[in-house]
């Protein structure tokens, strides 16, 4: 891992070519011309931020958009290329992946020097995926985009991110099976409970699900990925929810200088997750990733049990 990685939002709460029902950008006012075609002054501002962070010895950067899609910006290739010129060792783009179904864009992207791309896949089939994204045809484009990127797997590492919620948790095994069959050479599969802080309250009941209900479907997916020797990670689910044999796949919590991060691959401040007083006597409490803060307001804490075994744990 790199000495220091940072997350750079290239614009908060802007346009997207999906309209995911769990997303904090759900209430956005459609496409904004100043986002898709940003003014030169904003592009220069982001470049200046990249330059300053590099001077401060940052070695990695993740381009993301809170509630939006970075690849529909007309300057995204320019920004990625600039990060490469500054010799960032780790350049990651978080995206829905749809634009990579276009071969010419994919070629330009690979030439930019971006080292990693993280693509969200919400289901194993078009019907459910498109229902979640509220965008007809999004599944077909995302799948095509991942396949296009994998033809360049010697130049860019491709990760798939699966956000877990009530609409897709029973589909997790099918997702793992689909990934194993369709995406040979994928570098990593990440599983996250969806962060619903920004979702419309009217969708909470439709999306919230107990982690104890997710567990059997998640572990069945893990079993398949493990058999296929696929690398996978799990974030923001406590150790007590998951079978011990998968603990090595959990992104564990590290708190340093007031910053909460999750190893081995999450560079960003994730302090909005929490553990509980009842967890203080758990042998994994110092490393437990906890859950999203809103989770306990829906379900409480009864399903989380302190682990007191003296069994040696190495993570």
Automatic annotation (TrEMBL):
It comes from Fermentimicrarchaeum limneticum. This is Radical SAM protein. Keywords: Iron, Iron-sulfur, Metal-binding, S-adenosyl-L-methionine. Signal peptide: none annotated. PANTHER family: RADICAL SAM DOMAIN PROTEIN, TUNGSTEN-CONTAINING ALDEHYDE FERREDOXIN OXIDOREDUCTASE COFACTOR MODIFYING PROTEIN. Gene3D superfamilies: Aldolase class I (3.20.20.70). Residues 1-233 form the Radical SAM core domain. One of its GO terms (molecular function) is catalytic activity. The keyword Nucleotide-binding does not apply. It comes from the Archaea.
């Amino acid at each position: 891992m790199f000495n220091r990685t940072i997350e750079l939002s290239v614009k908060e709460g802007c346009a997207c070519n999906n309209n995911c029902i769990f997303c904090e950008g759900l209430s956005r006012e459609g496409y904004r011309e100043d986002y898709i075609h940003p003014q030169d002054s904003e592009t220069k501002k982001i470049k200046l931020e990249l330059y300053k962070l590099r001077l401060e010895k940052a070695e990695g950067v993740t381009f993301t958009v809170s509630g939006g899609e970075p690849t529909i910006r007309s300057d995204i290739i320019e920004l990625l290329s600039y990060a490469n010129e500054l010799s960032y060792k780790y350049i990651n783009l978080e995206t829905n992946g749809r634009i990579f179904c276009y071969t010419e864009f994919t070629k330009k992207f690979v030439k930019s020097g971006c080292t990693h791309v993280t693509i969200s896949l919400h289901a194993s089939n078009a019907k459910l995926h498109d229902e979640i994204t509220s965008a007809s045809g999004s599944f077909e484009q995302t799948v095509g985009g991942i396949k296009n990127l994998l033809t360049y797997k010697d130049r860019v590492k491709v990760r798939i991110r699966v956000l877990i919620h009530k609409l897709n948790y029973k589909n997790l095994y099918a997702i793992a099976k689909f990934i194993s069959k369709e995406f040979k050479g994928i570098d990593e599969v990440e599983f996250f409970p969806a962060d619903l802080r920004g979702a419309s309250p009217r969708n909470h009941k439709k999306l919230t699900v107990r982690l104890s209900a997710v567990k059997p479907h998640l572990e069945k997916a893990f079993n398949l990925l493990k058999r296929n020797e696929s690398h996978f990670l799990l974030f923001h689910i406590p150790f007590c929810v998951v079978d011990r044999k998968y603990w090595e796949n959990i992104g564990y919590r590290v708190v340093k200088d007031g910053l909460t991060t999750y190893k081995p691959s999450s560079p960003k401040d994730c302090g909005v997750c929490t553990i509980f007083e009842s967890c203080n006597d758990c042998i994994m409490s110092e490393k437990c990733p906890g859950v999203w803060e809103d989770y306990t307001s829906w379900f409480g804490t009864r399903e989380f049990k302190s682990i007191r075994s003296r069994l040696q744990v190495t993570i």
